[in-house]
């Protein structure tokens, strides 16, 4: 992952992708068969005509809403696909879904992720569902990266919003539309609430499509509905894994004290203001430690010293006023379950930040090994806690610390000639920092009775300097500590929308 959202190389690559896609779409057209790309003269002409950002946005969104694919393709060479409406946060894909333009939407899906969200936390599928655009929804659902469980700021999935067009289809006795909506997952027992307004709902006092069918004595429609379930209200829809009691692992307060005996000094600086992350909660933050020390049928990969690291880290963070759990040598599936459960914790609403520490064998800084010899990506871990995925940590600092032993394990059975997958416009990471124990090249793995070199340096830095140093200064102190202890790695700090100052602010 790069510290910048779009490097010049990425922008150039994306432009080449757009030109390639436009060229493919234009093949077979008599009017454009003589050219496979937009000439520089035509591009300059477009730039001249679109002389302001406002005009660009108006024109390109109008092309999407009217289904003018040819004009849209030309404009994309000027604007790129990452444009959005400032007021609503709508992407071009949102506009295509809302305007029921399946052809345009299919093209834009090559450039924009189906999971991108607007300021209301809605994906394009949410907008299509609310208006009952079934053809558009089928295209979105067919995308291999589409997230069925994505919820908006009101905790609603796209299936929840299908209750509105289902309500309308029942009212107008549109059996074909009803069948299509039910096939897409519409729930006839979902409380539509403010999604359905008007005199009908007030006079009949109905809030679900099933109740409406009963009130209008439309038994044929009623018979097509699945078996009755308990009506769900938005406020009652909480994920079944949202309870903090479902988190496995060992709580910090139950772990024995590690070999490092360090005293932590309480915070001594002013940590409030518009340019500082708020860190005055109790507990200060939640810490999740994932340590992988043993690996299935590979005794040569055992990472000694890991248990000492877990004890040292939990002890230091515990003294700083942080709470958390440690997990040792999980499988890939167990890792996914733990992180998903952490994401749903109600505790995240009450803490100031979250810290994730992962120690294992690394394939560069991009992937790490789980105990069952499966590989997970660091990008997947970070994206699991994006604002739209984890509302409890929205606008809060998220720190990911990756301590990888690199060079000892090489990924096996790498598939060759894989289908090229273009990078699409995604929801960016916000308020996120990634600290890597090395540059990702070969790292000499060493440990003492106190633990491994990097984590020992990290614990000492936090204990001695976190009470008065901001994160950037702490990073410099960590580099000094690593140098003083002859650590061979070169820790790297990457910033992703981390726009404010951050103090760990150890509790008094």
Number of DSSP helical runs: 19
Instruction: Tell me the series of helices and strands, N- to C-terminal.
Output: HHHHHHHHHHHHHHEEHEHEEEHEEEEHHE
Helix percent reads 25-40%
Structural category is: alpha/beta
- Could you name the ranges where pLDDT drops below 50 across 5 or more consecutive residues? 1-7, 28-52, 233-242
Mean pLDDT rating = 84
Strand runs, count: 11
Q: Give a quick account of the main beta sheet: strands, pairing sense, barrel closure.
A: 9 strands, mixed
Task: Please compute the radius of gyration using only Cα atoms.
Answer: 26 Å
The best one-word shape is: elongated
What portion of the residues fall into strands of 2 or more residues? 5-15%
Distance between the termini: 36 Å
